[in-house]
Every structure is written in C-alpha cells, then in structure tokens.
Design brief:
The chain is about 65% helix and about 10% strand. The protein has about 170 residues and is α+β, with helices and mostly antiparallel strands. A 4-stranded antiparallel beta sheet has the order 2-1-3-4. Helix 3 packs antiparallel against helix 6. It is elongated, with a radius of gyration of 22 Å. It starts with a helix and ends with a helix. About 10% of the residues have low confidence.
Length: about 170
C-alpha cells in the first residue's frame, strides 16, 4: 500500500533524467513515469525543491547489477548531496530568521515610502551576505573539492561501461 502511494507521489512530482555515458536528457513529468520507474533502475529521479534548502530532492538510481565502482560513485554523490542539503537548509533557515527579525523591527515605521523600505531591505541583504562571506567561501571551496574528487570515480565508471559495451558487441 505504501509502495503504491509513494509511486503515485513520484508520478506527480519527479522527472526522469537519463545519463547514459555522460549524456543528459530530460523527460517531462507524465503518467508513464511508473513504467519508467518499474522497468529501469538506471535513471535518477529529480523532485521538486525542498521547502527549506531549495535543493531538488534526488533519488539516485541503483542498478540491479551495480558494480563496486558504480556503487562507490553513487555513495559519494549521495554523501555530497546530503552535505549540500544540510548546509543550505541551515543557511536558509538562518536567513529566514534574520529577515523575519528585520521585518518585525521595521513593522513600526509607518511613514516610510516603498522606495525607502526597498532600499533598507537591500541593505539588509547586503549585510547578511557580508556577514556570511567567509561561510560561503568555505562552502564553495568544500564544494569544489567534493566535486573534483568525483571526477576520477566518474571517469573509471565511464571506462568500465565503455569496456562492457565494446566487449558485448564483440561477442
């Protein structure tokens, strides 16, 4: 019962991204998604943005005959995604709290024009970014490192798949 309910939710909110050998194609959300989910475990599912982190939910595909290298790559991708989700959820929560506090403090100023309010809000945004500059810089460097570390495993998986493909044609 819960499997059918979750499959129904997938049909409504996920898109299938096909990535055979590095090619990216996007399929639209439609009712035929259930057959794509049941028949093939080679495609990642991309869902709607998370309400706090604003990152899209990703259901990473797991092949039935997944090799050790493919499994390691998938696990590294999942760990990287989880790390990004955690960072942005905390960051956006902090931003929303700061903005709410700013707006509550501004609530008492009635004689203010819309232009003045917009100017003050832009100052708030800049101050928030300035205060979090080092945090953003640290995140960005970590993000670069994590993604750079995915290059070699991705390359080895690509070579492994190409080798299997060529060997399969020669038989």
């Amino acid at each position: 019962m819960s499997t059918m309910r979750s499959l129904s939710n997938l049909q409504k909110s996920y898109q299938v991204f096909q990535r055979p050998l590095g090619v990216l194609r996007c399929g639209g959300v439609d009712r035929s998604l259930s057959s794509q989910v049941d028949d093939s475990k080679e495609h990642d599912l991309i869902g709607p943005p998370h309400s706090v982190s604003n990152l899209r939910k990703v259901v990473f595909s797991k092949k039935t005959n997944e090799t050790r290298k493919e499994q390691e790559l998938r696990l590294h991708k999942q760990a990287s995604y989880k790390w990004q989700h955690t960072f942005w959820a905390e960051h956006n929560d902090n931003f929303n709290k700061s903005k709410k506090k700013f707006l509550e403090e501004r609530k008492n100023t009635e004689n203010e024009s819309d232009k003045q309010f917009a100017d003050d809000l832009s100052i708030f945004y800049k101050d928030f970014l300035d205060k979090n500059y080092s945090l953003h810089k640290k995140f960005l460097w970590e993000w670069y490192k994590k993604n750079f570390k995915l290059l070699w495993p991705s390359f080895t998986v690509l070579v492994e798949r190409l080798t299997k493909s060529v060997q399969g044609r020669n038989r």
